[in-house]
Amino acid sequence: MIKHNKKRFLLIGFLVAVITFVLLLVGIKYVLNNNLTNENIIAFLVLAIIFGVLSSGLYYYKMWVAFTIFIIGITIGYFEMYRMFINGMGGWGDLTGLMSLFVWATAGFVTGLIIEFLVYLYIKYKDKRNRL
Question: Of 29, 31, 108, 125, which one is least surrounded by beta carbons within 10 A?
Fold first, then answer.
């Protein structure tokens, strides 16, 4: 039976959610100098919860490769978002910055799951060969 450390995977999800929320808040409010509305804060919370739940789920099911690649995707997404916020890009920096965050996070999640599946198939194949 698989034993899960309940506190650790909840902590991981909480930390990812809090960091996501803070980075979005700082990026929009201070880097872009935009005023925040209640709708913005709710949207930031929803995105933060989604990222937290996904990372916590990957950690809970011990999908280490997918978890790592997803976190790397989110990290690259934030770097790209801030880079585009700072460059401005003629008024499109805010939209392209947020889109790059979504694209990198999605790419990290999907790529992580695909590679995790390939690792699973390799382990099954190797295990089957060793039994013969």
Answer: 125
Tokens matching residue 36: 């925040």
Report pTM.
0.90
Q: Could you tell me the two tokens for 97?
A: 């910055």
For residues 56 and 33, what is the distance between their CA atoms, to the nearest angstrom? Answer: 32
First to last CA, the chain: 26
Question: Hey, how many other C-beta atoms are within 10 angstroms of the C-beta on 53?
Answer: 13
Tens of pLDDT, residue by residue over 46-84, are 999 999 999 999 999 999 999 999 999 999 999 999 999
Please give the radius of gyration of the chain, using alpha carbons only, rounded to the nearest integer. 18
Which of these, 60, 61, 72, lies nearest to 110 by C-alpha position?
A: 72
Taking phi over 0 as left and psi of -120 to 50 as alpha, with beta for the rest, 65 belongs to alpha
**Spatial CA neighbour of 21 closest among 43, 6, 4, 37:** 43
The residue assigned the tokens 């198939």 is 121
C-alpha–C-alpha distance, residues 88 and 64, integer Å: 36
